[in-house]
Amino acid sequence: MSQEQTYAAAGFGQSVPRGTRPAIIVVDFSYGFTDLQYPTASDASVQMANTRRICDALRSRGFPVIFSTIAYHPGEIDKLPWLKKAAGMAALIEGTRLVEIDAATGIRPEDAVVTKKGASSFFGSTLAALLTGAGVDTLIVTGATTSGCVRATVVDAVQSGFNVLVPRDGCADRAAAPHEANLYDMNQKYADVTDTAEILNWIETLAPRA
Q: Pick the catalytic residue: 92, 149, 171, 199?
């Protein structure tokens, strides 16, 4: 039995229902993850350009555009277990350029930014409250990294009651193998992994938010 047959026999890989009130969470496209002068970064120029197209389409219809960033107070660095495992993240200090959202994403002053201390954009942040308050039923997830914070956000999103879409060309990672493996697994279990063009076509069918 092939891998695809094994997953299908187990009932995985079903299509995600799509609602009429989407939003996007752009995960950690901050300079610490996008500017190659920093060792924690990867090349995300294409993925940011695709994310920007989705954000522009959503804003044009009045749907929420939200960004997340990881930022630590210096007093947290020696106390958080994740920073012992992923020591490079300790450079992401509040007020530094590394935690600012990359301007290449097209972020605007009206876009919400949630700050987090771990992988998921939901954990310990106001993201769930923002989405619920806006009546969101379908969440688009882009950002970095696919195998880390994107995946964690996707899992928490579906567990929080949202239908989830992931454009594969809007997600960046430091290596191809974990990127592809996690896209495959997310598509089987948690989200529809699609692409920017397909998501843009879907957004165009939606009535603007009142």
A: 149
Mean pLDDT of the chain: 96
Q: Tokens 């009429």 label which residue?
A: 20
Domains of the chain in sequence order: 20-204 (3.40.50.850)
Calculate Rg over the CA atoms of the chain.
Answer: 17
Instruction: Report long-range pairs for 206-210 (Cβ below 8 Å, ≥24 apart).
Output: 206/20, 206/22, 206/61, 206/63, 207/20, 207/61, 208/60, 208/61, 208/62, 209/21, 209/61, 209/62, 209/63, 210/62
Q: What are the C-alpha distances in Å from 170 to residues 19, 96, 108, 141? A: 21, 25, 18, 8
- The C-alpha atoms of residue 96 and residue 31 are separated, in whole angstroms, by 10
CA angle 156/172/137 to nearest 5° reads 35
Verify whether residue 149 is a known catalytic residue. Answer: yes
Q: What is the tens place of the pLDDT at every residue in 29-60? A: 999 999 999 999 999 999 999 999 999 999 99
| Distance between first and last Cα of the chain | 50
Q: Do 174 and 88 contact (CB within 8 A), yes or no?
A: no
